[in-house]
Amino acid sequence: MKKQLVIMAISLLCMTAVGQVKNQHALGARLGGGNTFGSQVTYQYGLSNYNRVEVDLGFNANNNGNGFNLSGIYQWVWNIESGFNWYAGPAVTLGSWSYNSDYDGSGNSGAYFGIGGQIGAEYNFEEVPINLSLDTMPQFGFGPSNQHFNMGLSLSVRYAF
Fold it and tell me: Is the pTM of this model over 0.90?
């Protein structure tokens, strides 16, 4: 009986150390680099203390063309220390782009689909409802216009509520 109580107590302690999704909602900006889409609006919805869903939406428009990118990520969250977590999970991306070349007047357009994942670390401030994270979302593109590997590093700033 004592052995079962000790195992149960250790199991409960391990479960509380697994993750801490502090707030159910977080909304902000994801600023990216590398060969990814770039800056996006990001929203997180906490499903439990241990997992959440993130949706990132980006628009890109300039004189030479435009496009959009929509990513959905399921994340598991693990607590490192008070307010400091790391997270990982699978991701899917849909998007479209078009551009016109200033050089010869030609253009191109297409749609793409990507499958990959996301891994990162975040800090939730205690004093203010701000969440900072640094992550990468490597993915493989599919479709006629995007058949290569994409990866970049992103910094996100979110208002948590």
Answer: no
- Sign of the torsion angle spanned by Cα atoms 140, 144, 146, 149: positive
Q: Chain-centre distance of CA 146, in angstroms?
A: 20
Band of residue 15 on the pLDDT scale cut at 50, 70, 90 = very low
Tell how strand 130-136 and strand 84-100 pair up: unpaired
Q: What is the pLDDT of residue 2?
A: 58
Element (H, E) at 142: strand 139-142
Q: What is the per-residue pLDDT across 61-100, written as a single tens digit (0 to 9) for each? A: 777 788 888 999 999 999 999 899 999 999 999 988 887 7
Six-digit token string for 133:
């994270």
- From residue 74, give the alpha-carbon distance in Å to each of 33, 79, 116, 144: 21, 17, 11, 26
**Domains of the chain by range and CATH?**
2-160 (2.40.160.20)
**What does the angle CA 80 – CA 85 – CA 87 come to, to the nearest 5 degrees?**
120
The answer to whether 83 and 89 are in contact (CB under 8 A) is no
**Alpha-carbon dihedral 82, 128, 75, 61, rounded to 10 degrees:** -150
